[in-house]
Each structure stands twice: as C-alpha cells, then as structure tokens.
Design a protein that fits this description.
By secondary structure, this protein is an alpha/beta fold. It is built from 13 helices and twelve strands. Helix content is 39%, strand content 17%. It has an eight-stranded parallel barrel with strand order 3-4-5-6-7-8-9-12, surrounded by seven helices. It has a two-stranded antiparallel ribbon with strand order 1-2. A two-stranded antiparallel ribbon has the order 10-11. A hairpin with a 6-residue loop joins strand 1 and strand 2. Helix 2 packs parallel to helix 12, helix 4 crosses helix 6 and helix 11 packs across helix 12. The longest helix is centred in the C-terminal third of the chain and has 16 residues. The two termini are 37 Å apart.
C-alpha cells in the first residue's frame, strides 16, 4: 500500500487524548501461534506486515504481552527499530497479561508484564495499555489491593502508559469493569458481529458513559471472511449447525448484491457510531491494503436490511 494514500479519517478515542482510525490492525497472529490459528507466520513476514500497517492510511496496531509469550511484541519492536521508532501519528496498543505458566495475575505480575512490553517494543511509555482477559480471575480479585487493576492505574499515574483500558470476553464481567469508572477504553471481541450480538448492551452502556469502545474480531476468527464452505469454526471453536446455516444465508445475500462477505462483516462494525475502531488481524503485508479495500467497499442499504435478521439465535451467542 502506498504511504501517499489519503489517511483514514480519525475518531476521538472516547475521552482520551488519542484520535484513531476506524480500522485497527491486530497482532495476535503475528506471534505465529499455529495451535490457535492453524498456521505459522515467519518472522520476516510478520515484521513486514507491521511495517505496512504502521505506514498505511490506518496506522493503528494492537498487540499483547501474552501473544506467543511476547513474540508478537518482539516482532513489532523489530519493525519499530527498522522504522526509527513509532511513525508520527501512529497509535500502538498493548496488553498486560497474567503469567501463562502459573496463572499469576497479581500487581507484581502486571508490573513485570508491562516492563517486558516496554523492553520488547523498545519504548519508554505506552499510548494505550489494556488489562487483558480478566476472566482468568474474579472481579473482586481484580479490583482488590494487590490486584491488577490498581497496579494498572499506578502505571498510568507514573506515566508509563498514557491511557488504560480493559480487553476481554464475557460481557457480564466486562460490564462490571466498565461500571467502575477506572477504564478509559473497552475492547470486546467476537461478540458484536453479523452472527453474534451479545455485546450490544455492553457497547451501549460503555459508549453512554464516555468509555471508548474497540470491537475486535469482526470475522469471528475467519468464518465471516472465508465462508462456511472454507471454515467450520467461530471464535476458534467448532460452529453449531445453525450458525453455519446462517453464514450460508448471509453469504447468499452478499453474493446477490455483489458484496464480499468480509466487506459486510467488517462494515457491520465500522458503521456503528458507538464503536471507535475495529480490530482486524493481519499476518501478511498485502492484507493491510485488502482490509482497507473492504472497509471502503460500497454496500447498498438493501443488504443491511436483509442481514439484520440473519444473526445466529441468541442461544448460540458467546455472551
């Protein structure tokens, strides 16, 4: 993608000092985790992908300490060194993780996680730092003295992170974190897509409270990009028969109007005014430009009317 292309318009990230493009490129696959994604990503290709994303019209990148035990951040850091640092106007988010071996998610572990991120990325401070997957402990444990949330606030107060957020799955738990007033940004994943609407109230409440909402995984792990004939998993798990049947009906409606399935899946999130940015995972440089084309695809209103009734039954949502 040419760096001369016009930048994607920015949206204010809630009440933070950041303005971000509507598309954010996700870095989980860059760590090369074949057990999760089913394929490997060579280091050179990952670094080239990061470079392409940060020089694109949507220079917003999301990674985490826990992706590949820090491998995603190491590869992002290598790209940053090649670029001479974070390009002007680019935004980089990462996440503090528990110890994958012991399950430790204490304040001390959050501090170790953040220090490791800064080293791997080669940065002095982070623009956006999330508490990652807090479903691995109880809400009370997370909020208690000596827990991760207070340490995250302390890290922000020390200037090691400009802004803090929470990134996780279960909508009930995420709602509780949003209600604390501690977090400036909320990232939800796999729960606001063409198939799954379980994060609807969470998004509404967060946006209403001035918390920026980031929506990740609009393709549900690939099913809503590749289609039911190519993949039978949603959110990295086997998809139920009724879910696959709905995907086939969505595909048929998209084909009838000449719209790629992936364009509809991505723009379902992009067109939602409550959502500041949508995270799309990429593992090849050419996917950056391809994602931008999907984001700009002309979709007739007729398609949205027909797709509105084709979400999976609520009994099959992630919640």
């Amino acid at each position: 993608m040419s760096t001369a292309e016009a930048a994607m318009p920015r949206r204010l990230l809630g009440n933070t000092s950041l303005a971000v493009p509507a598309v954010c490129f996700g870095g989980s696959g860059l760590a090369s985790m074949p057990a999760v994604f089913g394929y490997e990503v060579p280091e050179e290709r990952a670094i080239a992908t990061v470079r392409e994303a940060l020089l694109s019209p949507a220079p917003f990148l999301d990674t985490a300490a826990g992706y590949g035990d820090g491998e995603s951040e190491r590869r992002v850091g290598a790209a940053l060194r090649e670029l001479g640092g974070l390009p002007e106007g680019a935004v980089l988010a990462t996440k503090a993780d528990r110890d994958a071996a012991t399950g430790d998610f204490s304040a001390a572990q959050v501090r170790r996680s953040v220090e490791g991120s800064l080293t791997r990325l080669g940065l002095d401070r982070l623009q956006l730092l999330y508490l990652h997957d807090p479903e691995h402990l109880t809400f009370e444990e997370a909020m208690a003295p000596g827990g991760p949330v207070r340490e995250l606030v302390r890290i922000r107060d020390e200037g090691l992170a400009q802004h803090i957020g929470v990134a996780g799955g279960p909508v009930g738990l995420m709602s509780r974190f949003a209600a604390t007033g501690v977090f400036e940004v909320l990232l939800t994943h796999n729960r606001w897509t063409l198939l799954d609407r379980s994060a609807g109230q969470l998004i509404e409440d967060a946006a209403g409270a001035g918390i920026a909402v980031i929506n990740a995984a609009p393709f549900g792990g690939g099913l809503l990009a590749k289609g039911a004939a190519a993949q039978d998993r949603y959110a990295y798990r086997p998809a139920a028969r009724v879910v696959l049947e709905r995907v086939r009906r969505i595909e048929a409606e998209c084909a009838r109007l000449g719209v790629p399935l992936a364009a509809a899946a991505l723009q379902f999130s992009l067109r939602d005014p409550r959502i500041a940015s949508t995270v799309v995972g990429v593992t090849r440089p050419e996917r950056v430009a391809a994602t931008m084309r999907l984001a700009q695809w002309d979709i007739p209103d007729e398609l949205w009317l027909s797709l509105g009734e084709l979400a999976a039954p609520a009994s099959h949502w992630q919640y």
